[in-house]
Write a structure and sequence with these properties.
Helix content is 53%, strand content 12%. It contains 8 helices and 6 strands; from the N terminus they run αββββαααβαβααα. The N and C termini lie far apart (56 Å). This is DUF1018 domain-containing protein.
């Protein structure tokens, strides 16, 4: 083996070691979590949360209070999503989170509904086979499945078919060139809420430059989407989309 080959092998070894260390670091439960929570690479990054439960208030016989319920004082682990990452990054810059609690809640509701509904489609196919053979009705599951589908349709109708990043209102130099394509509200919401993509990924996917101004526009557009999904009337200001 030549010197160049050895150097290349050492470089590959260091890169692989760094990659594995990064995976293990993301898979390790956050500080304060219970010792029974394993290191699980498939789980991905997680954050520590303090479990709470509503219990009767001894000082007020008619009232209730929230009480920490962590096992032996330990915290639980919750998988992190893109909104946790955005909030942590903002905290490092000593800035408020880019999205309100209500916006994050409806984004996670949308994600959970879609994931559960997609998984339920396979179960529904299995149930239909059993119904055809007379082995059961599965009516309760079908009712819940249809109700979830209606809820998803409603949220998507609130997202609408608008354009989050219209090409014509942004100078070619600001949007990244002639290859930039319009970013629809639905594409933006699905990429971030359902698939955990970054705003820069969305911009790059549509041929836009990943500059801070374009990221800010995407954040503002997603805020509008999430507000509409909560039922708030939102009128997008055209001036916020010009460069």
């Amino acid at each position: 083996m030549t010197v160049i080959d050895r150097q290349a092998a050492n470089t590959r070894s260091r890169e692989e070691r760094a990659r594995m260390e990064a995976i293990l670091a993301r898979a390790t439960p956050a500080e304060g979590c219970g010792p029974a929570i394993p290191v699980a690479p498939a789980r991905g990054a997680c954050r520590s949360v303090t479990p709470q439960s509503m219990v009767p208030d001894a000082k007020d016989r008619t009232g209730w209070k929230a009480e920490e319920m962590g096992w032996r004082g330990f915290k639980a682990a919750a998988a992190m999503d893109v909104f946790d990452t955005l909030a942590m990054n903002a905290a490092r810059r000593k800035q408020p989170p880019p999205f309100s609690k209500g916006q994050v809640t409806v984004a996670r509701l949308y994600r959970d509904l879609v994931e559960r509904h997609d998984a339920g489609g396979m179960k529904l196919a299995s149930l239909e086979g059993r119904v055809a053979s007379g082995s059961g009705t599965g009516g309760d599951f079908m009712d819940a499945f249809l109700a979830e589908g209606d809820a998803i349709k409603r949220l998507r109708s609130l997202i609408g078919t608008g354009v989050a990043m219209p090409v014509r209102r942004v100078r070619p130099g600001a949007r990244g060139g002639k290859g930039a394509r319009a970013i629809l509200d639905r594409d933006l919401a699905d990429a971030v809420c359902l698939h955990g993509r970054s705003f820069r990924w969305v911009l790059r996917k549509h041929g836009w430059s990943e500059g801070e101004k374009n990221v800010v526009r995407c954040v503002a557009a997603l805020r509008d989407c999430l507000d509409r999904m909560q039922g708030y009337p939102v009128t997008r200001k055209n001036s916020s989309l010009t460069a």
